Amino acid sequence: MYLHGTSSINAQGHLEIGGCDVTDLAKQYGTPLYIVDETLVRQRAREYVEAFRTSGLKFQVAYASKAFSTMAMCAIAEQEDMSLDVVSDGELYTALKAGFPAARIHFHGNNKTPDEINMALDANIGCFVVDNFIELQLLNALAGDKGKKVNVLLRVTPGVEAHTHDYISTGQQDSKFGFDVSNGAAFRAVQEAAGLANLELLGVHSHIGSQIFEVDGFQMAAGKVAQFAVNVRDELNVTFRVINLGGGFGIRYVEGDTPLPIATYVKAITDAIKSNFGEANYPLPEIWVEPGRSIVGDAGTTLYTIGTSKDIPGVRKYIAVDGGMTDNPRPALYESKYEAVIANRANQAADETVTVAGKCCESGDKLIIDCELSKPEVGDLLAVFCTGAYNYAMASNYNRIRRPSVVFVKDGQADLVVKRESLDDIVGNDVIPERMKRTSAAK
Ligand SMILES: *Cc1c(COP(=O)(O)O)cnc(C)c1O
């Protein structure tokens, strides 16, 4: 069993995270429960920041808040000197409510609404990452209405394909995101942006995919973006001050996943920027990255209670937990793999292969197919590792299941950062129209 961060097994044979016995956490907060190892989150953030400091380049490490957006997480990002990416009014609101400095907020998205843009303009955020020609004109007009000039990056697709699952690659030409470099759209976007009075064009952004284990994709992207920058300088006399190479740095979910140390990715990127721009006698730009998964992913563990089991002799044994695709849709969406342990007997070797099912009315609601566990029994606690990114963030109320609480653990202390939804939260936005009330009253 692979233990991430501060996770360990204590003298009682229980899984412990951040110095907290997870069986105690289950008693106190109930299950399902998202547990986040705060020390590991901070460590990952520092790995990025330190590696960039070492490079000598100007930089921003923008936490992609979509991976796990809560006010407490925004507070940690702020304390760790990160910037913040947001993609919606909800993520922006979360950041602002948490007191995150607006100047370090970057707004992404391929369909920002006028209301969202106005909200971001009023907040004086640091940068808009513009995705398309319609947004370019809209942002310029809305900024003009407010008498503001705003910083922009243009999202480009450099034509680099990350070695990853189809659904999460975005750097290839056939993408809903960004201006294509190869067909000239990116060049025209620079030309247009440079002529818009209310936009300050800082540079370009590229994000080639997610859960990437190699450095070559980032090096290629840096090379293509540099080539584009030189072309733009020579043809349009426009110089980029910022190059943003996005996120996508991989983490270890299961055995066989081989991410590189964060410093290795950063060094590859900063070296590629230095050499590509240096060779072209181009003033070294500021480099921005946007890690999401690699900041919070391996710091998260989801704790469930096993409620039932079903043995189909010769076929498979299922165990069912008190959550599922509602708190972790990734296995159903992407066939993502996870590892788990019986948390109240974490010292016992795995001796049985079972499939971990959720409690939703979907046959596809399976969290782990063929999971090796130590004889799981009803009432046991199951800890699924590496659920910090894109779990809580993607959680739903399907089957009207309540979203779990989130606790941050550190040095033996646990703090609630998101409360479990109540049954009243579930019906909180429901409305019964008057005419339906009359019908039922008439009976
Ligand atoms: C999703 C996303 C990220 C973060 O990706 P991770 O794989 O979580 O690091 C960064 N930038 C953009 C534009 C994204 O869409």
UniProtKB/TrEMBL annotation:
Residues 41-296 form the Orn/DAP/Arg decarboxylase 2 N-terminal domain. It comes from the Bacteria. The keyword Kinase does not apply. Signal peptide: none annotated. The active site is at 361 (proton donor). Pathway: Amino-acid biosynthesis; L-lysine biosynthesis via DAP pathway; L-lysine from DL-2,6-diaminopimelate: step 1/1. It catalyses: meso-2,6-diaminopimelate + H(+) = L-lysine + CO2. GO terms for molecular function: diaminopimelate decarboxylase activity; pyridoxal phosphate binding. Keywords: Amino-acid biosynthesis, Decarboxylase, Lyase, Lysine biosynthesis, Pyridoxal phosphate. GO terms for biological process: lysine biosynthetic process via diaminopimelate. Pfam families: Orn_Arg_deC_N. Pyridoxal 5'-phosphate binds at residues 248, 290-293, 390. Substrate binds at residues 293, 330, 334, 362, 390. The modification N6-(pyridoxal phosphate)lysine is found at residue 66. The keyword Amino-acid biosynthesis applies. HAMAP family: LysA. Homodimer. Specifically catalyzes the decarboxylation of meso-diaminopimelate (meso-DAP) to L-lysine. This is Diaminopimelate decarboxylase. The lineage of its organism: Bacteria, Bacillati, Bacillota, Bacilli, Bacillales.
